[in-house]
Design brief:
Number of helices: 10
Radius of gyration: 25 Å
Shape: elongated
Length: about 240
């Protein structure tokens, strides 16, 4: 599996397509009181799907990194029990199969175990996983493992220390995510406020904004407001989406 190339399932395509249609409809009604903008904005669904694909891709890579840590902890336990490095991956796979929620790394460890039986080297298989995953911790581990394997280093100690290092980094990431989670919620709420204001004014005073919907000047002003709103939303999204 190439983790850098995410493919939507049909369910995801339908879900995100409906999300964009709903969003397009809300914006068209609140800002223009017309379905013509709905049709004009509809091609934006391609951009929306591209954004969602990137989000899903990043989420999958992040999940793989978390599961890889669990897998390597199981490998480290196997090494501590006296298994060789290659056999430790097989034992780790058995442990992963007992615990739900490790489907990604379970598939990768299963592939590694099968390929080892065909006399492929563990170094080569880990390097291949690192290239396909695009995950920093996996790439660093594969590089360290490769150097240690070629130089005849203490693989058991190196794997144990690397797992501890990755664990500390993951704990730091969790703390950062907790800190910015509230900011993301605030950004989402603030992004929805202008839409609620327009909906409230349109409901409480139905004719109050008619001049904005039935004149060239009004449509121009509303288009400018929508453009500024979109830029503010994009800026806020970039600020809160910190790479950790």
């Amino acid at each position: 599996m190439d983790y850098g190339n995410y493919r939507f399932t049909w369910a995801e395509k339908v879900r995100y397509g409906l999300e964009y249609i709903l969003l397009d409809g809300v914006v068209s009604v609140l800002f223009y009181r017309s379905w013509i903008p709905f049709l004009l904005f509809f091609p934006g669904v391609l951009w929306f799907l591209r954004v969602k694909r990137k989000e899903r891709q990043k989420a999958r890579i992040r999940e793989l990194g978390k599961q890889f840590l669990s897998g390597m902890q199981a490998v480290s336990n196997g090494l501590a029990a006296g298994y060789s490095v290659e056999n430790a991956f097989g034992e780790a796979l058995k442990e992963l199969q007992k615990v739900p929620g490790n489907d990604l790394v379970e598939k990768e460890f299963s592939l590694i175990t099968v390929q080892l039986s065909f006399n492929r080297t563990l170094e080569e298989l880990l390097s291949d996983l690192a290239k396909r995953s695009g995950e920093e911790d996996i790439r660093n581990f594969a590089e360290v493992f490769g150097v240690a394997k070629r130089s005849g280093g203490d693989l058991v100690a190196i794997i144990r220390n690397t797992v501890k290092s990755i664990s500390r980094k993951e704990e730091t990431r969790k703390e950062i995510r907790v800190c910015i989670a509230s900011k993301k919620l605030e950004q989402n709420v603030m992004s929805a406020v202008p839409l609620f204001i327009l909906a409230y004014v349109g409901t409480a005073s139905p004719g109050f904004l008619d001049v904005m919907y039935h004149s060239v000047a009004g449509i121009t002003v509303m288009s400018g407001c929508l453009f500024v709103y979109f830029l503010a939303w994009m800026l806020g999204k970039r600020i809160v989406e910190i790479e950790v």
